[in-house]
Amino acid sequence: MKIQATELFLKIDEAKKKNRYVFLRGSSRSGKTIAAVQTLIVEALTRPKISITIARATQVSIKNTILIDFKEVLEQMGIFDRGILNKVDLTYTFDNGSIVRFIGLDDTTGKLRGLKSTIAMVDEVNTIDRNSFVQLDIRCEEYIISAYNPEMEEDSWIFDYEKKPNAELIVSTFKENPFLEDSIRQSIMDLKDTDYDLYLIYAEGKIVPPREKIFVQPETFMEEPKGVKATYYGIDWGFGSDACGVVKVQVVGDKSLYVEQVIYEQGLTNEDLIYLLRENGIDRSVEIVADSSEPKSIEQLRRAGFKIRGVKKGDGSVLFGLQKMRTFKIFIKETSTDLITEFRNYKFKRDRSGRLTNVPEGLDHLLDALRYVVMEFVDKPKKPSYSFM
Q1: How far is Cα 8 from Cα 259, in angstroms, rounded to an integer?
Q2: Which helix (H) or strand (E) holds 249?
């Protein structure tokens, strides 16, 4: 068996020999998570009967992110079938008795408090609180690897740990990953023109405190865009005081979205909505995504002849979707006044002490409809290939 790894893997290997805490601060696609997973797999293979805990903020995010990375690294090494994956308990047991457990720190069953491990890893450590980290720390025998993109408060508790004498910080960027596709490199660099804060975070690996306004001032358009690759529609349900929002999204190039407000109206029944969709020229050839919280409404529109599906949602999906939206250059039609207003006024709440939280506030019916389109149709990258040297 051979393992191909980046230089970051070697840096982690040296750091863990001398420190209890190894922090991996890095830009998008710097390879930090994969390098950390490779480190843990090598530990499990070479040290029988050890226990490893891999944690994220939520159980849902575990299944959709690092568990997939873990499986793909094992497959690249050609050894996935040499162990047993328990999809219910989210554990992987190697043939030498070593075990890797995947946990969400939102667990309410009390498992975390009784969970001991030889080694631990926290992915996206900037999304958890100090107490959750402490719970892992006091139950970990040897060392903890913590990976994160540097979007965080300037006084984050993480810095207290990074300053400890038995801690090492390793900073990496996508530029140090020689196996990254050119298209992805360009996509990261293009953030400089769409959202400079995200560019500093994901391209340069720099600390950028979260801002109150979620989106920068949107640019507008009036004439129909040229070179449209695809057109989608998004629906956010509403009836009483909440308006039903429908947006049209045209994709131009790889990172430009031209968005138009189609419907924004209170008190619509599904029959009313079906009529208005047809009046706006939307037929069975157009792909539509809607809030999955109303399956009966989705089915009613489907039976009326529309090609509609519900968006995949879960814990953390709102923040994930907003982050994805910020990576696109978004243009809004000048006549879409309600959508423009939502963009301008959408922001993160502040707590009683005045600190920003990660909870958005403001009208978001049309924004939600746009977010569904981005999550379901637009932001669908090709499956990455993890071939490291």
Answers
A1: 40
A2: strand 244-252
The two structure tokens encoding residue 231: 């057109």
- Nearest CA-CA partner of 343 in 372, 375, 370: 370
Share of the chain above pLDDT 70, in %: 93
Residue 339 binned pLDDT confidence (cut-offs 50, 70, 90): very high
d(CA 369, CA 363): 12
Q: Between vectors from CA 72 to CA 325 and to CA 143, what angle results, nearest 5°?
A: 90
Residue carrying the six token digits 């009326």:
304
- Give 184: exposed, middle or buried? Use CB within 10 Å, 0-12, 13-18, 19+: middle
Q: What is the pLDDT of residues 68-101, one digit of tens each?
A: 999 999 998 889 988 999 998 899 999 999 999 9
DSSP annotation string for 323-358 = HHHTTSEEEEETT-HHHHHHHHH-EEEE-TTS-EEE
Range scoring the smallest mean pLDDT among 60-69, 106-115, 127-136, 181-190: 106-115
Looking at residues 143-159, what average pLDDT do you find? 85
Edge-to-edge strands of the sheet including 287-290? 219-221, 329-333, 256-265, 244-252, 228-236, 287-290, 307-310
Question: Which residues lie below 8 Å from residue 348, measured CB to CB, with a gap of 6+?
Answer: 210, 211, 212, 214, 356, 357, 358, 359, 360, 361
| 3-class state of residue 179 by DSSP | coil
Write out the two tokens for 8: 């970051």
Residue that the structure tokens 């490291």 belong to: 388
Q: How many residues does the chain have?
A: 389
